[in-house]
């Protein structure tokens, strides 16, 4: 059976499917939005990419899939939990690597995704996860195939509890500081952490509880309202709450919040009288470290949260690529501010070309026709004010040379001062940055102080295409601090009237 016919058959069963790269696992569309159980829509997607693999959106399809890479893990599940999925009369597929995908019908309680949580080599794909389905191809040359093609059985309730179990995070109450503003920021930090580590089904309730406490600190005069609201919105988006739902919750919490004061919260342990006024760093135990949220992405395998640097020689296409990534973030509904250091008119045509070609809503995208001066106090204050007003998830500085006029790029001191401005925006306001920079005449090295690469959460080098018939380039990940460096990104520059855009766009990931 051809892949498209099978995809349509899955849709007719009520399963939400979407196209995945041939012989791979990477979605060719924004699958969380575009997966569909409409047979006609599925047919239309495969008309555009007839050789695509099939992805199944487990949450939308009402499925929970147990992904077993090593068959010995079945024995571990049986011994540890009395659960032998291979013995159930439910749907089972063999993966391209020779493992098993065991399909169950989801119950009333959603099942959280996990990787090797309950046992090594056992992953769970539920609400918010997807799997590649038969007869998709695999890079090994094998194909996914059905071992038992029957209707999935309901997942055992006992295993739902196992898959969803997580220890409640330890909440550490910080002792009140003499400065009420610091107390307010401590409340905000603790409650944002509580939201970002909340479990599915409880996230809106947690947002309401946390927002009530945070807004109480605002009404007590210990916290700025705009900063509090910005961080609460970002935390809500981080856990997948819809913007409209989050705004209603925040409005309700603001209306119900009462003014709170430091004495309203009693610290778990009282500090000795001779040390209680000393400023100390927050100490994290090994257990606290395990509760920290994993690294998050603004764009998967491209742009992590934090500080990213993109550099290349003139004409390499780095600004086109940076704009594509910025527009792709905006297309997710996140606020983006792009500081354009030069060529504003040409930049405007590029934005128009991108929006016209990809038909994406980028109403959350804003451009500033100048670069901030990261070494000048007044300009830094203007930057902070702009960020507080707009609450962006990402700012783009294009280029660093324009943002550090008068400074010495080879000076660790000057570069460090500029980097600290961006780090402060991240620490205090959770604003990520993408900095466009120049490379040296030797490929693979960014220009200036090594402090740049040392501070970067991610670093990309952009090189122009070397084929005379190819207009575009390739981006190489030179650093990815908290994840494995992804593969290089090959892109083309396509023209549209007097504008141009990058193809393929990161918005299609």
Termini distance? 27 Å
Q: Number of DSSP helices?
A: 17
**Number of distinct beta strands:** 21
**Mean of all residue-level pLDDT scores:** 83
Q: Which secondary structure elements does this structure contain, and how are they paired or packed?
A:
Elements lengths: L2 H10 L3 E5 L10 H4 L4 H10 L4 E5 H4 L1 E6 L3 H10 L10 E3 L5 E6 L8 E2 L6 E4 L4 E4 L11 E4 L4 E2 L2 H8 L15 H17 L6 H17 L5 H14 L4 H14 L29 H6 L5 E3 L3 E2 L2 E6 L5 H13 L5 E5 L3 H15 L6 E4 L8 H14 L3 E5 L1 H4 L8 H18 L2 E7 L12 H5 L2 E7 L7 E9 L8 E8 L2 E5 L6
Parallel strand pairs: 5-10, 13-17, 13-18, 14-15, 14-16, 16-17
Antiparallel strand pairs: 1-2, 2-8, 3-5, 3-7, 4-5, 4-9, 6-7, 11-12, 18-19, 19-20, 20-21
Helix pairs in contact: 1-3, 7-8, 7-9, 8-9, 8-10, 9-10, 12-13
Your description of this structure?
This protein is of the alpha/beta class. The chain has three domains: about 160 residues, Prim-pol fold, CATH 3.30.2250; about 100 residues; about 210 residues, P-loop containing nucleotide triphosphate hydrolases (Rossmann fold, 3-Layer(aba) Sandwich). It has 17 helices and 21 strands. The strands form four sheets. It has a nine-stranded mixed sheet with strand order 15-14-16-17-13-18-19-20-21, with helices on both faces. Strands 3, 4, 5, 6, 7, 9 and 10 form a seven-stranded mixed sheet that branches. A three-stranded antiparallel sheet has the order 1-2-8. β4 and β5 form a beta hairpin. α1 runs antiparallel to α3 and α7 packs parallel to α9. The longest helix is centred in the last third of the chain and has 18 residues. About 5% of the residues have low confidence.
